[in-house]
Design brief:
The chain is an alpha+beta fold. The chain contains 6 helices and 5 strands, in the order H-H-H-H-E-E-E-E-H-E-H.
Amino acid sequence: MLDTILQKASGIFIDGLSAVIIILIGVIIGRALGKVLNHFLSQVHLNKFILDEIKVGINLEDYLGTFVSYVCYAISILIALNTLNIMTPVFFMVVGGLMVLLLISLIVGIRDFFPNLFAGFKLMRGRSFKENERILFECMKLKVVNIGFLETKLITKDGDILFIPNSELEKKRTVNITRNAKKAKRK
């Protein structure tokens, strides 16, 4: 009976140690792959391409590198759970929880995404203001630097950079100082 208990304990210990080693290897591989991908994408100048072509200022190089790292971490955890023979119940609980979080995130994100996108299309037509024009928004005089799909980049006279969601610019009263000054000079 003692031999059976010792065999089971040693088996559990070996499985546990194997799982820890698998997770450590997964973390090392994940970090390495994430850094290699990040370096490769920075050599390709992905962020500059996205900023120039799509006019969206996001750091996609870092996001993709981090995403690859997290995928490697998740795979190593799944392999470790499989080694411990507890993969199925834990896997379904984790995947179910992640799906719920993803669904909630999508709902919250979409709530802001579409109004900003539609307002961005309106602003890009240039009826309210265009780039390099001065506007009055929320009692602040601002210069329009870039009108993006979701947000507009503005600069204060002190040099502070503001990113205002396009839906806010569309909802609230915005006065185009540049155009009003030109109209006043004509009269």
